[in-house]
Design goal:
The protein is an alpha/beta fold. The chain has two domains: about 300 residues, Zn peptidases (Aminopeptidase, 3-Layer(aba) Sandwich), CATH 3.40.630; about 110 residues, Alpha-Beta Plaits (2-Layer Sandwich), CATH 3.30.70. The chain is about 35% helix and about 20% strand. The protein starts with 10 loop residues before the first helix and ends with a helix. The N terminus is likely disordered. Bound molecules: glyoxylic acid and manganese (II) ion (MN) (2 copies). One manganese (II) ion binds next to loops.
Amino acid sequence: MSKAAALNVSIERIQRDIEHLATLGQTPSGGVSRTSFSSADKQMRQWLHGQCQEHGLTMRTDGIGNIFIRAEGMNVPKAAPVCAGSHLDSVPEGGRYDGIVGSVAALEVLRVLGQAAPALQRPVEVVIFADEEGNYHHLLGSTALVDNFTWEELQQLRGREGDLLVDALSAMDWDPRHATRTALSSHDVHAFVELHIEQGPVLEESHTDIGIVTSIVGLAGGQLDFVGSQDHAGTTPMRLRRDPMQAAGSFLGQLARIASGTSSTAVLTCGLMEIEPGGTNVVPRLARLHLDFRDPDPDVLSQLEQRIIDCASNAANQYGVEASFRRMSVTAPVPLDPHIRALLREVALGRNLSVTDIPSGAGHDAQNMARLTPTAMIFIPSAGGKSHSPQEHSSWQDIEHGANVLLDGVVRLAQA
Ligand code: GLV
Ligand code: MN
Ligand code: MN
């Protein structure tokens, strides 16, 4: 067994933190709604600040809200850090574990290292990414670490409620112009490791403790607008209508066919729709569908986009309306680092855990970090494969296993 295995996380501390975070933005259904820069997110940031003070850690926040935490007391040479972390925002009515497990486990790694002070060649840094769930932009915080957003780009970004990102940043008492200066260089980070719940059924069904992620799916988002004619719902005969909702309905009925026509792995979702002007007695002018589509193969992603455009155009013609598609984001699929994957497998086996390789169908900040630095991910089982739902659940034992693998992996990387 490696020397690092002598250190262990405290599952009691991790459990206490996860249970506390579940109260920030708690919903009546037992889930969590903690959108980045919301009041629940502010409470989370205050809580984290308190944790850092209690455990002698220093916390810094960059211009777009990414949080960086270090144990400054640790006597390690100045060098690029090994980073670990995840996100503490959630989808609306999300669960208690998505992003939270990896963030709290990374914090725990720092607490353990702060206490034990093992000999390391480089610092360890926790990163908590802002708006991973993409209210304003898919993987907002990690995207900003890879490439600076321009001021013009930032000013365009709006959340689900139509609010501007720059206003949300100002409401945090931050200068939004600082959000244009966030990018890191590959010299700033030595490696990145993210622990996460699987969010699918594979590990639980195969009774496997740990998944080592091989690659992360490519994913794209776009707005599909159907524009017709706004009219009176009582007086406009059906034959005279140019109703964008009917075109949208026709398009939505074909989501599965559009996806399966490109590959068996492609998925296409519309989880959000806007209707303008929006009234029960008004034939709408606009139906805007927010689309999310994914595949591990970047060529399939392009084909899928073309099929969306073609199919939308057919549906629009059928109902005499106009269709237009605007691509909002594309995150390329990435393979994860083979050396760190091998190291994580070794430390997991060293703890007598069962391990398998697994691809990720969910998007993660690790996919942006992989463009900056050697990156890997550890998955733990999700009960029933449920995620992005209040029913999301992982056992304390599985969380402890994952956090200890993260601890050992980070220590090994920081000793090199
Ligand atoms: C993140 O949770 C995503 O896969 O959208
Ligand atoms: Mn998520
Ligand atoms: Mn997540």
